[in-house]
């Protein structure tokens, strides 16, 4: 995801929004919005960057009302019909999606979607086809690294060696992100072993990654279980796949990446007894996929696959690399609309061309 400059965020986009510029855009196509759920009531964010994908229920409601007033929020069925060539998109079409399948999708997000009368395409991992309460391995890793004692460390488990210096929060975030890439290269069991080794090294064995007795913590970190996933589907929401275990696919051997993509679909279809046609690449940024990975969802039988950047009306829509607008907590309503309307993408392209021209004139 590109960082949006403070000037655009705080001055330029709010001014254009006030003037109603975004509402008047006539760019064709489809804007796909990515949520990651809402902050459950009573949950205190651990870290602004780590929790930054979750927005408040109130902000979700404001965004949905804005979309309903000035755009056409289409259902997942409409999106599939468009993808299969059976239906045209309405003007200013927007599709809502939400990744990862946190429990808060059911407890905190669904009520807002229902009150506003819109539906959403939820991308969940293979963990949500099971019966036990799981959490995302990379979130557990972050929480453990945050609690680990400061100083130099080296952890070696099943061929994975990670070392570094734990100090400031910034340092810990850096080590975490490098570890996410490294641990994406191994299978799920090796990741579990690594997390166990990390707990032992830092004497965190007794600590729970999240408190299952605390409802807010459980809704924030727990993943939907199979029965809860069925509840979400019965409420009129569509379920799509997000791999078995949420690795960064670009880091995996090709056969393992394909197994993550195809097995995720098979597992969900068997749990839900319905077809799963949509796929979202975990993380979904340019570094998380390769050309080989982008060719896999079609082979695995999906009708469409979604990235997590570059979205907005008027952008190209390759069916297996569909761009999306990644909604974050730091995004105000004006920036949200600048992105959905495609204004932001067009602005970036124009700014890029101007910068190129300046560079050519100066060289
Ligand atoms: Zn995800």
List the topology elements.
Blueprint: H1 6-18, E1 30-35, H2 57-70, E2 72-74, H3 76-83, E3 93-100, H4 104-116, E4 121-124, H5 137-147, E5 151-157, E6 160-166, H6 169-183, H7 188-201, H8 215-221, H9 226-234, E7 238-241, H10 254-272, E8 278-280, H11 291-294, H12 296-299, E9 304-310, E10 322-326, H13 333-340, H14 343-362
Parallel strand pairs: 1-3, 1-10, 2-3, 3-4, 4-7, 8-9, 9-10
Antiparallel strand pairs: 5-6
Bound molecules: zinc ion.
Zinc ion is lined by residues 99-100, 242, 246, 282.
What does the model show?
The protein starts with 5 loop residues before the first helix and ends with a helix. It is built from 14 helices and ten strands. Strands 1, 2, 3, 4, 7, 8, 9 and 10 form an eight-stranded parallel β-sheet that branches. The protein has a two-stranded antiparallel ribbon with strand order 5-6. Helix 5 runs parallel beside helix 7 (188-201). It has helices spanning 6-18, 57-70, 76-83, 104-116, 137-147, 169-183, 188-201, 215-221, 226-234, 254-272, 291-294, 296-299, 333-340, 343-362; strands spanning 30-35, 72-74, 93-100, 121-124, 151-157, 160-166, 238-241, 278-280, 304-310, 322-326. It is α/β, with parallel strands linked by helices and 363 residues long. Helix content is 44%, strand content 15%. The structure holds zinc ion. Zinc ion binds at residues 99-100, 242, 246, 282.
